[in-house]
Amino acid sequence: MKEKKLYPEKKDRCSFCGRAQAQVKRMFAGAGAFICDDCVKFCYDLLFDEEGTGVKTDSFYVVPTPQEIKKELDKFVVGHEEAKKILSVSVYQHYKRIHLNDKSIEKSNVLIVGPTGTGKTLLARTLANILNVPFAHVDATPLTEAGYVGEDVENIILRLLQAADYDIKKAEKGIIYIDEIDKLARKGDSPSITRDVGGEGVQQALLRILEGTIANVPPQGGRKHPEQSFIPVDTTNILFICGGTFIGLDKVIEKRRRKTKLGFLKEEEKEESDFEILPEDIIEYGFIPEFVGRLPVIVHLRELTEDELLKILEEPENAILKQYEKIFESEGIRLIFKDGVKKEIARKAKKLGMGARGLKVFIENLLFDAIYRLPSVKGKYKYCIVDESVFYTKKPKFSNKK
Question: Model confidence over 282-336: pLDDT tens digits?
């Protein structure tokens, strides 16, 4: 009788502990050897203990520099140069804080203020892609205080957990973008004596999560109840980016600036930019000071110009026209937009006031008939020409000549 080997297959087994790939989360392959994620962590912790440096540097993850982050953002986001620099520095500081394990460095949660279609969500999502961390995009409007119909604030953590495939450690270093945050502003000049379901009460509920706490997340979402099991998630290292249009904030800023002109504020504050947003402006808008304090970085995105909208159409790696070109190329047809058409789309989108979203609205409208006919003309034509006549006919021309 042959002796049964403990590890019959050397392939896909950790060369250190002998466990199979199915028994571990991740297996790393080298030159004729394998090592599992547990053994990697063990060796890492062992090296740190032996060196006794007191600072835990991460050998397996290098935080990109602010310049590198900005360079990557430039590939996908047109304009907003100052905003991209501020975000790059904030994200760098946040993840450097995590990998240095230095609690003396405060969190750099971010508030982005800007008109619709200026790229608030795109910036947040691109940052997550650059850092290779889980990303969740949630809307603030359904959130309510505990005890009211709606969603508990812990559900925003659930979205991140789902994006991380329920890997808690991975989720705890992710990015959450809370959209429409301006809808949580308290309405009116004085707090209501009744509980504010969608405003100040939710701000209070979000405080601990933004600062850092162990959030008890219901795995199936919805409202909490005592018999339900929870997933504990530490939010200390989660980066929160909040965004909103803040309609009417310009009036708050102008009111402050009028006080400045009257000489009630310091001399150096008289030279501030017309577009500078200060924490007191957000408080005056209807947010409690404690909430604003949890968002130390405020970024302002101005409305996009016609030239910037034109660049968004064709320059970024994820440009709208490039996306449609791929659809047509999959059927063997090249999509060609005349320069005059692209400029007119940018002009119309600017007039519509929807920013980059307006571009997609017009492109969809102009190409609807062509995409509808695309499969049926496959192999018959080489080009799909979009010229100025398409604004009247809504029918691009299929042709074998450019």
Answer: 999 999 999 999 999 999 999 999 999 999 998 998 899 999 999 999 999 999 9
Q: In angstroms, what CA-CA distances link 361 with 179, 352, 353, 354?
A: 21, 10, 12, 9
C-alpha 137/C-alpha 178 separation (Å) is: 6
Distance CA 176, CA 159 (A): 9
Task: Round to the nearest angstrom and report the end-to-end CA distance of the chain.
Answer: 77
CA dist., res. 345 & res. 365, Å (int): 11
Q: Find out whether 214 and 150 touch, Cβ atoms under 8 Å.
A: no
**Three-state helix/strand/coil letters over 283-325:** HHHCCCHHHHHCCCEEEECCCCCHHHHHHHHHCCCCCHHHHHH
SS3 category, 171: helix
**What is the DSSP pairing of strand 175-179 with strand 239-244?**
parallel
**Degrees, nearest 5: CA angle 124-207-84:** 25
Q: Looking at residues 337-361, what average pLDDT do you find?
A: 88
Instruction: Please give, one letter per residue, the 3-state secondary structure of 50-110.
Output: HHCCCCCCCCCCCCCCHHHHHHHHHHHCCCCHHHHHHHHHHHHHHHHHHHHCCCCCCCCCE
CA atoms of 391 and 396, how far apart (whole Å): 9
Q: Which of 228, 208, 210 is nearest to 219 (CA)?
A: 228
Q: Which residue has the tokens 């600036």?
A: 257
More confidently predicted of 303 and 201: 303
Q: What is the pLDDT of residue 107?
A: 85
3-state SS, residue 334: strand
3-state SS class at 390: helix
Per-residue pLDDT, averaged over 206-228, amounts to 75
Burial 213-225 (b: 16+ CB within 10 A, else e): eebebbeeeeeee
pLDDT for 62 beyond 60: yes
What share of the chain in percent tops pLDDT 90? 46
| CA 133 – CA 147 distance, rounded (Å) | 33
* Residue 100 vs residues 33, 168, 356: alpha-carbon distances, Å: 30, 20, 38
In 3D space, the residue among 100, 220, 223, 207 whose CA is nearest the CA of residue 150 turns out to be: 223
Cα angle 221, 286, 297; round to 5? 75
**243 touches 179 (CB < 8 A):** yes
Check residue 52 and give left, alpha or beta (phi > 0: left; psi -120 to 50: alpha).
left
Please give the mean pLDDT across all residues of the chain.
Answer: 81
* Residue 49 token pair: 């203990």
